[in-house]
Amino acid sequence: MTALLEVNGLKKHFPIHGGFLGQETAKVYAVDGVSFAIARGETLSLVGESGCGKSTVGRAILRLFSITEGEVYLDGERIDNLSAGRLRSMRQRMQVVFQDPFSSLNPRMRVRDILAEPLVNFGLVKGRRDLNEKVADLMDKVHLPRDAVGRFPHEFSGGQRQRIGIARALAPGADLIICDEAVSALDVSVKAQIINLLVELQDTLGLSLLFISHDLATVEHLTHRVAVMYLGKIVELADRRALFAHPHHPYTRALLSAVPVPDPTAKRQRIILKGDVPSPINPPSGCKFHTRCPFVFDRCKVEEPELRPVGGDTAHTAACHLDHVPGEEDAVVPVAA
Amino acid sequence: MSATTQDGVRITEAPALPAILPTPKQRGRIMGFIYRHPTIAVGGALVGIMILIAIFAPLLGTKDPTALAPARRTREPPWINEWWAYWFGWSPRPRNADYWFGTDMLGRDVYSRVLYGSRVSLSVGFAVAFCAAVTGTLVGLIAGFVRKVDAIVMRVMDGLMSIPPILLAIALMALTRASVQNVIIAISIAEFPRVCRLVRGVVLSLREQPYVEAAIASGTRVPKIIWKHILPNTLAPLMVQATFICASAMITEATLSFIGAGTPPTIPSWGNIMAEGRALWQVKPYIVFFPAIFLSITVLSVNLLGDGLRDALDPRLAKRL
Question: What domain range is B272 assigned to?
């Protein structure tokens, strides 16, 4: 499998403006050196707490803003330094589904116009008839009634609106869809429907998904690989099975221990992290997790750990100085089949 | 009626809701609108009447508002004294019977002047609202979209807004010749920073909306994003702001005319009439009274309309302003 999307050392620093004419006064190190790759037809999940920079990674790949440093390759072609014109045609190949189904659709546009926008922009339709057919086809793909195209977004429920958002992302025939917390705002039953829809679309259309989420329990059901982010860095990257069965990084272990298990008799060891996520304006030195890590030692405060293979598995990498994390042998949570 | 689920649990139909909510009264479309938005209805109706008066001023029993007649100067409105005696047949038809609002010190008919004066006030109000809204929207869009321009433009707007609009308008009028057109330009310059500020704020918040980001990701070009995603969602607060600017422009115009820096004296406007009647205020108060009443009612009705629009279009905005 060749990588569809490859991200190398991605950095995004947001300047903070202040003063009389808005000079730059400080920087937010939102994403500080992130590398990963997604194969065709694969799902990679990016998980982490709020403010760890996972959404910023998604937006940076989409080039909703320019990136500070690093390289992004889509199908072997570098896309992070494209001119505006080339970028526009590149956008056809990657699309986005946002978290909030209420603010991600323009309240003053009908569903037909919302879905027609990408089709018209990329010149994918010839004439009105063709447009109507393609819009109807999109409605079929996301299992919405065809005759609902004349309605406004406020006439739909949250789950239906998210389906419209997915249909819009499918419209230009993208290879990569970035789901930015795409199911986080939905309630559990609707969440399951949307996840099933995404998996179904991935199977039929061969899509690659970058699934950004804070919810490990959701991620477990649809992902192939998981990347755990903390303060703008990936701290652990592994196959779903490996990550859920043998988490290496102390932060991953803490996150996993917080996932609720639907079995009241299950014995688990809860790892409760102390304190708050440090500010990305002044990130801690060395390992960014050292301020909260239960296994911290002197080296962590000085030297920043690199991602390296752990547990004899080359696909499983973690950024931790410890070769052996205490208590690693026993899985924190029972692994889903 | 009852249904049974697969587990054999009987589900009976939900009991009817207790009638704690009063059934909504059936109203026609027009009555329903008046009931839901009384301020829009009242304000809109009054503004409509004023517009009709301005348009049909020549047909409403008016005379030439600028015709001088020193012989019949400063006649009081007939209904203050004489009309009643004539009405009851106690005296012959009074000489001032045709001058319902009296005449001023040059013998001009105050009624005609007030009705024709509404043309100036309304056209200045609407023209300023339109010009300020258009220029303010343009500058606000640029400021909201181009970060580098933003800091400079907004500091200039802060500077303009720190000068009271009336002073700015007087200064601008002092530079030009007195004409309705110049009054409109001067007041527009004084008022448009408000619109600019509003539009910039709305643009900045809309730009962060996921649907705008989704549009960018769908390859929509910036002009189309502005036209299809930003402008339609700016329209509601813009309309509200425009009505308030309309009202304040009418006051500013009257003030300018009152101090002699606005509409030339050859064109009757409410501010002019009041300025000319000011010297006779203690003996002939009606010359000032009628234009003042018309101005107050017009401004009140425009403000009512604006308040109603604000509440109807954006309930959240109502708390902010």
Answer: 36-57+109-320
